[in-house]
Amino acid sequence: MKNQVIIASILLSGISFGQIDRSVRPTPAQAKKIELKDSEVFTTANGITVILSENHKLPRVSFDLSMGSDSKIEGEKAGLSDMVGALIMSGTSNRTKDELDKEIDFIGASLSADRNAISLSCLTKHMDKGLTLMKDVLLNTSFPESEFARIKKQNEDALLSAKSDAGTMAQNATVKVNFPGHPYSDVMNETTLKNISREDVINYYKSNFTPDGAYLVVVGDINRAQAEEMASKYLGDWKGGKKYVATFPEAAMPEGNQVTFVKKRGAVQSVVYVTFPVNMKTGDVNQLPSTVLNGILGGGGFGTRLMQNLREDKAYTYGCYSSMNITEYGSWMSAGGNFRNAVTDSAITQILKEFELITTEIVKDEEINLTKASQAGGFARSLESPSTIARFALNTIRYNLPKDYYQNYLQKLEAVSKDDILSMSKKYFTASNCNIIVVGNEEILDKIKQFDSDGKVTILDEFGNTYIDITPADISKEQLISNYLLAVTKSASMKELNKKLKKIKSVERVSEMSGSQMPMTLKFFNYYIAPTTEATALEFQGNKMPLTFFDGKSGYTSAPMASKKDMTAEEIAKKKKDAGLFQEMNYITHKVNYSLEGIQNENDVEYYVIKIVDGETESYDYYNRKTFMKEKSLTITKEGDKTNESTQVYSDFKEVNGILFPHTLSMNMGPMILSGQVTKVEVNGKPDMKIFKK
Amino acid sequence: MRKLLLLGMTLSISSWMLAQQKINYVEYDLPNGIHVILHEEHATPIVAVSVLYHVGSKNEISDRTGFAHFFEHLLFEGSVNIERGEYSKLVEKNGGTLNANTSQDRTFYYEILPSNQLELGLWLESERMLHAKVDIKGIETQRSVVKEEKRQRVDNQPYGSFFTEMFKRVFPVHPYNWAPIGSMEHLDAAQEDDYVNFYKNYYVPCNATLSIAGDLNIEQTKKWIDKYFGSMPKGEAVNLYRDFINLDEDSFQKRYAISKSKFYQKDFLKSTDSEAKKLIAAYSAKQIVIKRTSKDNSTLKAMTKDVIEDNIELPGIFMGYKFPEQTNPDAYALEMMNEVLSGGSSSRINKTIVEKKQMASFAFSFNYSLEDAGIGIFAAIASKDIALDDIQKEFDIQIETIKQELISEEEFQKIRNKVENNLVSANSSIAGIAENLADSHVYFGNANRVNSLMENYMKVTREDIQRVAKKYLTQDARVILHYVPKAK
């Protein structure tokens, strides 16, 4: 019996299985031609461009209405547009939020909004009801006070949560270092959130949500006639102003490699991004070849250089990717991943090595073929989603692409050569002008310093702003000020100090400053005449021009080639508070509002930080904890929605007539940086003050 | 009024029927036990090839956890005919994409390829199934990668450990006790043999479902399937073959009392030596018995409340209830109950806890349904200065309400509409269809379940929802976890 079973199965196995040589790999069948269905495009009477992509596979339809306005810098109100997005669905003049939510859910639809768009997706049979709700939101959203308060509070909580999310922290730091002074670097924090009012939200919505330049993308189980009918029925009476148009400066490359660190307590891994801005915009002819370049380096898949090196070979990470982000307003390259603490530095070394390699050596046939094939495959797969065709049409219109851009996409992709890749990397890539962002445990900080060209790691907080780590001070503010005054005048007692200062009748200082944005060296003159006269001048084309003058009672400011402007009463009051050789002398007599914030560590030096508040102006003075010398002042002034921040750094203190004067200075006003030497300090000389005569 | 409502109901039922698109497919078994499901559609020239192995973390032994997931990684390392690191490259350079995932119940691999590369996809999956590279080099590399994955997804993720902590308490006995990511110590302690044995036990034809969807020709596809999968040894012969490939002569002789030279290297099953033939036949006849776990019908006996410290800023609360297995008839009613509680902005939990009382920035519930049992989870991240106990009270009010009061006709209609919308969207991609068909076959023994889902949901009544709420939301037998910020 048993034998029979065996024989039977031998026979069976002989019959069922054909000869097969598994080492022979299958060859592909004839490739199918990728066919791109056309979208239809038409314009409504009120200026909306409608893009329709029909697809009747499933009985559902979507309407995406997006606005044509450009981004705005939000600055002091960073996060405003996010608040708008979160509040659009908070109720209308016809429906409370509860009613709206219920009606949307009742038809199983999704109706959502963000800062720039309102989108509906539902089964075709519920289309009319869905659009009725969409129209109500678009035209009648009412931003109720209570919802505004609720969303604001929710954002406060979200900001707290963001503080424990390393990925968010890394993104915040990335936009801040890559895009200063650009809408991309608007990151909401506790302060900017506080600054946002309900009126701001309403105004933003009104100016941004307007039919001028808007796009309506319709996808799914609907035909042209229906789409036209829906667009006119539900959006026909939508009115609004002109769209907002703006341009933004190109982002500058960092000087050398700059390391930026954000502390995350208890982190077992670091989030690392090696990133730099790319001077390119959507629709650029180089966009496609540079996407192939990114694909070879680390743009997805397991076969990329970064993935093979850092995951498959070294096992530093679960995934290491790069991305080339080409957008309308600004572009950037970024590569990185999550790496355990012990290998964070090694991972950065490897990423930079890969950057270096791709800018110097031609890529291999195998790599470029793999990437091109993989991107062609991705293109084909993306066509499965009906929204892809519509997105192609939208991009073509929005970014002024050639009409046949997507029709020819695969041919153009195929034509990208190895030489193209090298010329792309030489043009856009760098391994020596990168921002290296690390979010992680403080224990790794020492190990990443080596990557910074000037050895100074910038430390940012969770939202990408300057990190202030303050510990309580161990002396009082009065003690600190007196210690400073004694130190700077090299006096042993207040008595000696007063005696010394009395002897000073005048001080003249000359400094020569230069900066990368300045074509020439600037020569500044700084005068002090006891007891309260102060003046500054600038040498301009060989002439000395007055900049400021104050004689204790009144004064003026002046700019080269411009007329003098007398100080206002307010400016005079302010000036009086810091008149004199050392403003600190006035703190008590003039009731200056100053406080000792604590001790702050910056680049391994400990400073006492004094904060002075005067109206809308805040300033911070940094006194070295060991020497008590004032080495830095930071002033933040507010002008409406904008804040201006300026920093002065003093060093190289030398004694002149028994008083220590800094001989190296640097000034930083927004993007402008000046630095230089003090070339002359003269005490009790005979300064010529003629040019300051009124 | 009542009549109108009834009319509305019948209307919506018939439109449901219209909304769900029927998924056509063919299915059959190969002699070696592989179950094949094919779905043909030509909208886009792509094809999804997937293999579901009915093995997940619940098949692990308690001192070797994390094995199933580890295997998911290991099986990208290559095979007898595919070099290390080449597997994914082969897919990508032919315009495809690939990935895999592991749950408590199954491991799922897939490729999505241009449709002219279907044969390649079949060959790749057959290589993985027949003779994957399970060796020390690959094990070492993937061990480190998996550790990084755990750091990234669990350890470095705020509240990231809640799944592990919850399952540990809701399933004290059943192997759902540990999470698929498992223990790194166990992976370190495991020897090469442990890995080889896991492969031999679970990665075998009779434990696999091959599900293919997309732009394919059924007849041609069947031929290729016969070629690459039909040719695989049956029963324990597959492991005899694997030993023939992997063991040296001495070890092979020791185990099988026959020399490797008796077998035909190029086509193992075609070995002509009579002894070899006999052995192959004997092993082919020997069925592989897959160790299955059993359903866990036990109930929690008491309330467990624990505090867990994490690197977070806002405290969070996570409550877990024991739910039945996914094939339980009550599963549909539980799913609809969850829609009432947490489906969409107008759901009860969102309306009360997040919007009205503003106690939490996020609050939701969801059902985690598995083969042997399930968990109902309620979770919230507290707003600033809100006590977790107060959030729990609010959850409890909602739970009490759904247990005590029948949901309104209107709310009932709403969740039915939502379910309909969800089901229409569930089969929008071919990869999704391949996966849904495979899941339905493996867990429900019926691939056609994908076409009767709507019907099953429509049978649920308001009374059913109340009944399952009463039955499963047991307030005195649940797990409550409080996540609190670690002391700074």
Characterization of this structure:
- The complex is a heterodimer of chains A (694) and B (488).
- By secondary structure, chain A is of the alpha+beta class.
- Chain A folds into 3 domains: 177 residues, 2-Layer Sandwich (Cytochrome Bc1 Complex, Chain A, domain 1); 203 residues, Metalloenzyme, LuxS/M16 peptidase-like (Cytochrome Bc1 Complex, Chain A, domain 1), CATH 3.30.830; 223 residues, outer membrane lipoprotein receptor (LolB), chain A, CATH 2.50.20.
- Chain A has 20 helices and 26 strands.
- Chain A has a 14-stranded antiparallel beta sheet, with helices on one face. Chain A has a 6-stranded mixed beta sheet with strand order 1-2-6-3-5-4, with helices on both faces.
- Chain B has 488 residues and is an alpha+beta fold.
- Chain B folds into 2 domains: 210 residues, Cytochrome Bc1 Complex, Chain A, domain 1 (2-Layer Sandwich); 182 residues, Cytochrome Bc1 Complex, Chain A, domain 1, CATH 3.30.830.
- In chain B, the strands form 2 sheets. Chain B has a 6-stranded mixed beta sheet, with helices on both faces. Chain B has a 5-stranded mixed beta sheet with strand order 7-11-8-10-9, with helices on both faces.
- In chain B, a hairpin with a 4-residue loop joins β9 and β10.
- In chain B, α4 packs parallel to α9.
- The N terminus of chain B is likely disordered.
- Classes of the chains: A alpha+beta (694), B alpha+beta (488).
- The interface between A and B is large, with 89 and 103 residues.
Describe the secondary-structure layout.
The complex is a heterodimer of chains A (694) and B (488).
Chain A: H1 2-16, E1 40-43, E2 49-54, E3 60-66, H2 80-87, H3 97-106, E4 110-114, E5 117-123, H4 127-140, H5 145-162, H6 166-178, H7 190-195, H8 198-208, E6 215-220, H9 224-235, E7 258-263, E8 269-278, H10 287-297, H11 305-313, E9 320-325, E10 331-340, H12 344-360, H13 365-382, H14 386-398, H15 409-415, H16 418-428, E11 435-440, H17 445-448, E12 458-460, E13 470-471, H18 477-488, H19 494-502, E14 506-514, E15 522-529, E16 533-540, E17 543-550, E18 555-557, E19 565-566, H20 569-578, E20 594-602, E21 605-614, E22 617-624, E23 630-639, E24 642-656, E25 659-669, E26 672-683
Parallel strand pairs in A: 2-6, 7-11, 7-12
Antiparallel strand pairs in A: 1-2, 3-5, 3-6, 4-5, 8-10, 8-11, 9-10, 13-20, 14-15, 14-26, 15-16, 16-17, 17-18, 18-19, 20-21, 21-22, 22-23, 23-24, 24-25, 25-26
Chain B: H1 2-19, E1 26-29, E2 35-40, E3 46-53, H2 67-74, H3 86-93, E4 97-102, E5 107-114, H4 118-131, H5 136-155, H6 162-170, H7 184-189, H8 192-202, E6 208-214, H9 218-230, H10 237-246, H11 249-256, H12 274-285, E7 304-310, E8 316-323, H13 330-342, H14 348-356, E9 360-369, E10 374-382, H15 388-404, H16 409-426, H17 430-444, H18 449-459, H19 462-472, E11 479-485
Parallel strand pairs in B: 2-6, 7-11
Antiparallel strand pairs in B: 1-2, 3-5, 3-6, 4-5, 8-10, 8-11, 9-10
Helix pairs in contact in B: 1-16, 4-9, 13-19, 14-15, 15-19, 16-18
